[in-house]
Amino acid sequence: MTDAPEKANAVKSRGLWADALRRLFKNWMAVFGLIVVILVSSTSILADWIIPFDPSYQQRWVGAKPPGHEQLSVTNEVRVTVGSETDPRNLSTFLEGFGPDETHEISLVAHPPRELEEIWIKIYKSRKYPDRAPKVREIFFPTRRETLDELAITDPLHTLRVTDPLPKAIGDEEPEPFELPGGATFRVKKKIDASLLPLVDPERTAIEWFGTSAKLILQWERPARSENDVVRIFLRGRRIEKILMNGEPVEGFSAPGRDIEEATLDGEPMVHTHLFGTDDVGRDVLSRVLKGGQISLAVGLIATLVSVTIGVAVGATSGFLSDSQVSSASMLAGAAATMAACGIAGVAIGGSTPGAIAAIVVLVLFVPTSFVCRGERGLLGPSIGRLLASPLTTVDGLLMRFVDIIYTLPYMFVVILLMVVFGRNLFVLFAALGAVQWLTMARIVRGQTLSLKRKEFVDAAEVSGASNFSIIFNHIVPNVLGVVAVYTTLTIPAVILQESFLAFIGLTVQVDGEAVESWGALINYGLNQLEDGGGRSWLLLIPAAFMSVTLFGLNFLGDGLRDALDPRMRGKS
Amino acid sequence: MTDSPNGAASAPDAGAAAATAAGTVAARDLGEPLLEVRDLRVHFPQRKGVIFQSEVGTIRAVDGVDLTVHKGETLGLVGESGCGKSTTARAIIGLTRAPIARVTGSVKFDGQEILGVGGNELRDARRSLQMIFQDPFASLDPRMTVGAIVSEPLRNFGIARGRESEGRVGELLETVGLSREHALRYPHEFSGGQRQRIGVARALAPEPRMILADEPVSALDVSIQAQIVNLLEDLRTRFGLTTLFIAHDLAIVRHISDRVAVMYLGTVVEIADKVAIYEEPLHPYTRALLSAIPIPDPAVEAKRRRILLTGDVPSPDREYPGCRFADRCPLRRKLSRTDQARCDEEPPKLHDARTGHAVACHFPDESV
Amino acid sequence: MLRYILRRLLGLPVVLLILVTITFFLARVAPGGPFSADKNVPPEIKANIEAKYHLDKPLHVQYGRYLRDVVTRGDLGPSFKHKDQTVNEIIERGLPVSFQLGFLAAIFAVTFGVSAGVIASIRQNSWFDYGSMSVAVLGMTIPNFVVGPILVLLFARYWKVFNVAGWEELKDMVLPAITLGLPFAARIARLTRAGMLEIVGQDFIRTARAKGLAERVVIVRHALKGGLLPVVSFLGPGLSYMMVGSLVVERIFRIPGLGQEFIESALNRDYTLVNGTVLVYGVILVVMNLIVDVVYGYLDPRIRYD
User: Fold this and answer.
1) pTM for this predicted structure
2) Cα-based distances in Å from A113 to A84, A171, A184
3) What span, in angstroms and rounded, lies between the C-alpha atoms of B11 and A119?
4) Which of A399, A436, A505 to substitute to test the interface with C, most C CBs within 10 Å?
5) Vertex A481 angle, CA A475 and A485, to 5°
6) Which of C22, C153, C243 faces A540 most closely, judged by CB atoms?
7) Which CATH superfamily is domain B28-143+186-275 in?
8) Is A309 helix (H, G, I), strand (E, B) or coil?
């Protein structure tokens, strides 16, 4: 040794990733993006626990209220009770006329109250699924201390839902005597069991049955203590006489004769705040936006993860093996991976996906594989392999043309076409979105791989005895990971955007026959709810703001990551 | 591993410091051949077409190279850029191969044919035949620590694992003039010269018998070049390595080689002992090359006669019926018409014009 | 060049043939598609479809006839959901509206994009530069199904300057054109700015300035042609983005264009109409792309097609 080697400075070794992170944190746009992403993703993950209301829970009597609206915690359906003379059979009469799942309109004419008797209809409402229609658990005549046993026994879970009009009686300032507005319309939707039929008394009409009523029992929802709290509000006329909660007077309502303006329980106001208001049927906008974000992000993440996994594997393999006969094998491997993914997805979604869908999707995904593997022309020299390879390359080339032609169409059209043909289920959405995203990913990784494999360190690894597998996974993949990370963060917003696009134009994905409402659907809903003069604008602006901020955040983060990992790329888009 | 027949050279089981005591290599004594290259041809077909492919031409990067490297010696391989030096080395070690290239001929390493073999045979050969790459910035994986890079051959060839491997890496780094602590760092934290040392350590890791050094210093600053050349020379002595040293810098080749081969347009035109080549070059191309070396003595430099080559370096994409050098050859111009015709029509074979001095020229004895 | 155009034109029928084939067979493999027997189809339509597609005949005969009708007469068949209309009638009604929309949006995008880009490049690093480029980033990131509704809220609902929906008078057209054109204006502004900055740094511009030409002449005569090249090359992919965008815009503003018909047909599973519209979109794209390529080759003499 004739010379002293240059001493590497005593700085602590820092990996490339650490370096990149340091650069990332200097970019305040990216930091903003990162914060947004963390906020949005954590609220989405926690959405099921933190959202204040069930997003599909309607409070029709509340209607559309602007952000910050404080709603008295009287929720749910208003239960109607009748006068003391009422025969329990009359209730059945009322219930009887309707088939399952039908909607009827009933006109009521109310008479001044004579004598008060209550019927308590105890409603069971699941805490876990607060949106489910409440079930009739018990019908009780407190003065007689009788329970309507037949109902309770035969089927305690009948649904009785009386919605629209009664709250009016609470709000108005009119003095006694109480009078329900003549011809007020009830919309009654219920499921009723045939076991109630023996209780029918065909002679009495519903109108008569309601005739003497002036008392309400309200099912009262409050930050849940017990599941079956019954709050009774005694009205005389339209005045509140007393309010009992589980038999105890509620503070603040001890004085009779007040309209409901506020309610407290244990000193806490019995109101809930709709931070972002409610929509026209009284659904909480905040809850809907958070739930929608959960869906949007989940779609974005799953489609991206699928595309990244398949894309990196296929791209790296095909890129590394390009110019060799093995490439056709990589093509098949890609197709096999796709089929496996489809199979897993198909099993996971289950039922609604017939074999035809799987077959077509595999075809759709297989064709791009050959696209990825374009340029694989395994000429094998003078060997017989060339004979084998040339039909493969020709087929590959033909498939290539085919794909080119399909991709003449904007890819959203292809997605729409697929959703029309195969139905609007989640599986088709993932398949259609994932197919193209995966393709792009694979092409990027392949390009990177092609340039990487010409680098001397790949040669060096080969000389060091590394197998192809080891080269791909120890050298190629770690080196493309930077690009993959960047592209992944940019793919998520792209997929969110595409899914929302579809939802916006009405192609909402349906799960169990119900439309899944992502941000796009909410924005569309908000647009249709706009009133002249700009009324109800929050229904549009709030989901739009959430979506825009999230997209911004993800895009900033992606750009920042790219700049951090490769400073030369700075300022290029 | 077999012992070298040359008693002075140490056995190539260069385990560690043990071998340092060994004496110097007797350069003049041609030993048994370790690497024999016969009629090596590397042709790159040029293809066109998307669906139906057709071949439109061939680049003949290496077109009939004959070389023998003897045990313990260092053979320098010189020539202009693009003459096929690196391709030759890459083909020998199996990096250039089908389907990108058509490789024919024969490469025997220690008597075993290694050209065109794959899988385990090739791996076995590479355990004993390693390579140092040209660009120290491209030849180290930027995502790996130096330790991981140097231990890769240990792992792949199943030489050492875990603790043992760590120890070996430390030894190797110290051998090439780095310190053990450097194993935890990444390549981008090192200078070019240090990186090339890492590359050398990696090549040494499987305890090879022969090293192909593909222009190992041409990407480095001149001041660093000397360090690396000295390191290589030192290691060669310590471990009794056989080396094929590729360079375009004649001075460095002269410094490090025992014998020198000169390449021109895909073929070896002259191969001989270092002294013979530099003192009495026979091929007109070698003479032209040597005449281009500046001489540090101004008095001599002033009298140095330069042979200027006319014309561009011809393209390797066509076949030559006669001598490849003919249309640039300063000697051919002085020959008679019939002799010129011979140059144009008959390809000169590499033959011994002197003892141990082979040249591919029909008229090696004519002066320019 | 001529050979290139000819070859592309010769390729056109192949592309269309494949598109027709794909749409034809896609509709037939669809589970519960229009051609399965058990659907609740009004009898008139069923009769129409059967007469049209000869469902009693084997598949290849059906395909042959469909192909023949499409190719020789441009006949795309009866609508599956609209009783008395053919796909051709619906497309003839919707296409001009969509063309108008696209045209207006393109005018808006090019006018605003190019002028903003040129001004930003001339006054590099000025407040105008930063301001317009920030707006451009916003315009590219915020999807048009957010921008559109917000424009509706502000200009049609709140201030009532423009109309909410329809496609009759100018007041109907302004907001849709802006909504559709905004992302393109943003993109074009950025491309123009980048292109101009690159060109302005080049020697021939310095020469032009050195000759003493007025700055305006330098910009308009010399820089603009080269600076706009990236914009022209964006027009090809831009067209396909615009088609996708028109789906949303026509839906927001309830414009009776082709995009709206396409979505309606997609939502109603009106297969014949879906196929017809997709085919029309394909044709437009292929032809327009060819035109863009030719124009680009004409503008940039460095491009050689062979």
Assistant:
1) 0.68
2) 10, 19, 17
3) 106
4) A505
5) 180
6) C153
7) P-loop containing nucleotide triphosphate hydrolases (3.40.50.300)
8) helix
SS3 A474: helix
| Element counts in chain C: helices (H) and strands (E) | 13, 0
What phi and psi, each to the nearest 5 degrees, are found at residue A137? Answer: -100, -40
Q: Which of A282, A275, A305, A296 is nearest to A43 (CA)?
A: A296
Is 80 exceeded by the pLDDT of residue C71? no
| Per-residue model confidence as pLDDT tens digits over B81-104 | 888 899 999 999 988 876 678 889
d(CA A193, CA A96): 9
Q: 3-class DSSP state for residue A109?
A: coil
Q: What ipTM does the predicted assembly reach? A: 0.85
Q: Could you report the per-residue pLDDT of C177-234, keeping only the tens digit for each?
A: 999 999 999 999 999 998 888 888 888 888 888 888 888 888 888 888 788 888 887 8
Q: Determine the distance from the C-alpha atom of residue C255 to the mean position of all C-alpha atoms in its chain, rounded to a whole number.
A: 15
Taking the C-alpha atoms of residue C243 and residue C285, their distance in angstroms, rounded to an integer, is: 9
User: C34: cis peptide before it, omega within 30°?
Assistant: no
Quote the minimal CA–CA distance from C210 to chain A in Å: 30
Candidates C295, C284, C246; CA nearest to C16 is C284
Tell me if A381 and B206 make a contact (CB, 8 A cut-off).
no
Phi-psi region of A570 (alpha: psi -120 to 50; beta: other; left: phi over 0): beta
Residue pair C252/A530 in contact by the 8 Å Cβ criterion? no
Distance from C-alpha of A380 to C-alpha of A388, rounded to nearest angstrom? 9
CB contact under 8 A, A544 and C251: no
3-state class of A29 per DSSP? helix
Both tokens of residue C174? Answer: 């302004």
State the CB neighbour count (10 A cutoff) for residue B228.
25
| Cβ–Cβ gap A530/C190 under 8 Å | no
Tokens at B55, concatenated? 């071949």
Distance CA(B298)–CA(A75), nearest Å, equals: 105
Q: Which helix (H) or strand (E) holds B259?
A: strand B259-264
- In the predicted model, residues of chain B with pLDDT beneath 70 are 1-30, 47-55, 98-99, 367-368
Per-residue pLDDT tens digits for C259-281: 988 888 888 777 778 888 888 88
Whole-angstrom distance, CA of residue B155 vs CA of residue B164: 11
In chain A, what residues touch C282 (CB-CB under 8 Å)?
408-409
* Residue A351 pLDDT class (50, 70, 90 cuts): very low
Cα–Cα distance for residue pair B359/A171, rounded to 1 Å: 113
Q: Can chain A be said to touch chain B, i.e. do they have 3 or more Cβ pairs within 8 angstroms?
A: yes
**How confident is the model over A402-429, as a mean pLDDT?**
71
| pLDDT tens digit sequence for B180-195 | 999 988 888 888 899 9
C-alpha A99/C-alpha A189 separation (Å) is 10
pLDDT at A77 over 50: no
In the block, which residue shows the tokens 């790159």? B44
Say if B222 is an interface residue toward chain A (CB within 8 Å). no
Per-residue model confidence as pLDDT tens digits over A253-267: 333 322 334 444 444
Domain residue ranges in chain B: 28-143+186-275
Phi, psi of A517 (to 5 degrees): -100, 100
Task: Name the residue in chain B with its Cα closest to that of A17.
Answer: B143
Q: d(Cα A36, Cα A276) in Å, to the nearest integer? A: 19
Q: Token digits for A260?
A: 């409901």
Q: Which of residues 107-136 of B touch A (CB under 8 A)?
A: 123, 126-127, 130-131, 133-135
Nearest by CB: A459 against B95, B193, B206: B95
From A5, A15, A377, residue closest to B178, measured CB to CB: A5
Of the candidates A264, A272, A219, which has an alpha carbon nearest to the alpha carbon of residue A246? A219
Strand partners, A158: A136
